[in-house]
Design a protein that fits this description.
Strand content: 5-15%
Number of domains: 2
Mean pLDDT: 95
Number of strands: 10
Shape: globular
CATH class of the largest domain: Alpha Beta
Number of helices: 17
CATH architecture of the largest domain: Alpha-Beta Barrel
């Protein structure tokens, strides 16, 4: 498995990594088998998060005895300093390790949160620096879903890596974000290479990403055959054929009319509906165990607000991709109610 220099971290990581969300749905034995198969295939970069329930613990069990052969990346949401310290210690315990290679601020999508992280007096970044000096973490990264926020985060020069959605539909990072990361010598991690499960042609999806030799792609993996298939793409010619470009165009046109990129240009909503979260709810259902989103601290509240949509249409006027937001909010709210009833 080919390795690349991971920006200023200096880590030599495999171009193909492992995304730890889907293994939450598996039994522990099956989850460990999936991770071990990744190790056998030569993958050395494993991504998880404090908020991914059993994911950290299962990765920790799978890599036991091979810890020094892998790089583990995990994340925490930007709570209070005390919460971050508690989350870090819990991650270390779950992963059964005394250090984390890359610790990331999770889902930083607005300037106000970035300012809170980098506040010179009491910024949350200081908590990460303290942990780094103590040897608990080795590198500091950040993840985002919002382009303008991500660009601002990169320009600070304070982070060693950036994780952002990137695929041939959400292709804006190629021109807007990846060049900035290169200027800052930041490692770039591709999340949602299959658009949160919306792209069903994995061959084309990964061929597209293989045109970018300096990114690490972390598909969420649930089954052994999935990672075996994806790993095989990295051993084949990467050139995209004319027929494949035609298929990419067809899929982009088809999905592009109903694919939310979570840019949040549709906001603010007069009913305080978290529109991008509601719009992407089907991907939660596809990728995550029901308890993750039905018992979440914020998703049920956000989905409940969707019922208050007045169909004013202001969000659709702001959407640069002309999505039928009102229609999709209604559909996804109905899906939420259906899933909730089925798991009552």
């Amino acid at each position: 498995m080919e390795k690349i220099r991971f920006g200023k971290t200096g880590m030599m990581v495999t171009r193909l990594g492992f995304g730890g969300i889907p293994i939450q749905r598996l039994s522990e034995d099956d989850a460990v088998k999936v991770v071990k198969r990744c190790l056998d295939l030569g993958i050395n970069y494993f991504d998880t998060a404090n908020g991914y329930s059993t994911s950290e613990e299962r990765i920790g069990k799978a890599v036991k005895g091979r810890r020094h052969d892998v790089y583990i990346a995990t994340k925490t949401f930007p709570g209070t300093p005390e919460i971050i310290e508690k989350n870090l210690d819990l991650s270390l315990k779950r992963l059964d390790t005394d250090y984390i290679d890359l610790y990331q601020f999770h889902g930083i999508n607005d300037q106000a949160t970035l300012d809170r992280i980098l506040d010179p007096e009491n910024g949350l970044y200081k908590v990460f620096e303290k942990a780094k000096k103590a040897g608990k973490i080795r590198h500091i990264g950040i993840t985002s879903h919002q382009m303008e926020a991500a660009k601002a985060e990169v320009k600070t020069g304070r982070f060693e890596t950036m994780m952002f959605p990137f695929n041939f539909i959400t292709n804006e990072p190629a021109k807007e974000l990846l060049p900035l990361c290169r200027e800052q010598d930041m490692g770039f991690i591709v999340m949602k290479p299959l658009a949160g499960g919306m792209l069903d042609n994995a061959n084309i999806a990964f061929k597209y990403l293989l045109q970018f030799p300096d990114v690490v792609t972390i598909p969420g993996i649930e089954k052994v055959h999935e990672i075996e298939e994806i790993a095989s793409f990295y051993q084949k010619p990467h050139k995209i054929t004319a027929a494949e470009r035609k298929e990419m165009k067809r899929m982009t046109e088809e999905l592009g009319t109903r694919f939310c990129r979570r840019c949040d240009y549709c906001q603010p909503c007069s009913q305080q509906i978290p529109i991008s979260m509601v719009m992407t709810f089907p991907s939660f259902v596809k990728r995550l165990p029901p308890d993750w989103y039905l018992k979440s601290a914020f998703i049920p509240d956000g989905m409940a607000k969707a019922a208050n949509c007045t169909e004013c249409g202001e969000c659709e006027e702001r959407c640069p991709f002309n999505l039928p937001i009102r229609e999709m909010i209604k559909e996804n709210y109905n899906l939420y109610e259906k899933v909730k009833a089925a798991n009552a």
